[in-house]
Amino acid sequence: AFLGLSTPGFWLALMLILVFAGYLKWLPSVGMMSINVGPGFFERLWDLAKHMIMPVMVSCASGIASWARYQRSSMLEVIRQDYIRTARAKGLTEKVVIGRHAVRNAAIPVITILGMSIPGLIGGSALIEQIFAWPGMGRLGINAIFSRDYPVIMAVNLMTSILVMLGNLTADVLYAVVDPRIRYR
Prior knowledge:
Layout: H1 2-6, H2 9-23, H3 41-79, H4 82-89, H5 94-117, H6 120-132, H7 137-146, H8 150-178
Helix pairs in contact: 2-3, 2-6, 3-5, 3-6, 4-5, 5-8, 6-7, 7-8
């Protein structure tokens, strides 16, 4: 997790391009689709999936690393609680104690971070879109700012606001799933 947080996204992107596109030649280096892709639906879908692997890996690397650190610190805090000791004293197996009691309660603070990190994907995606030559919202927003295209800037801000609301809604729904004390009527 520490390595994922400390590695800059642009460096990871360049190293992935160097290894997987340069040396191994397994994946395409840039773009959204190959020029010579066939006309079939599944051929185009497979080509798009191959082009998505590296940008998705770079986008998810730091997010997963930070979520893992939050989950770990939350688990260490929950493991020391009295109800975990009580569950162990009742004779429950360690798998049940961890799976049913500890993980569910430790996930509550992580859900907040998960819900609020969804809008950050747009802001953090601009650099990744530039490196991998992908058309996307982050790149569109930056180009609109530099060219003073106010309607596009407002549209990108509106989309970011909608993502913030969807992130909060997702977090609220996940709260109700994870925490039995919270129920919406």
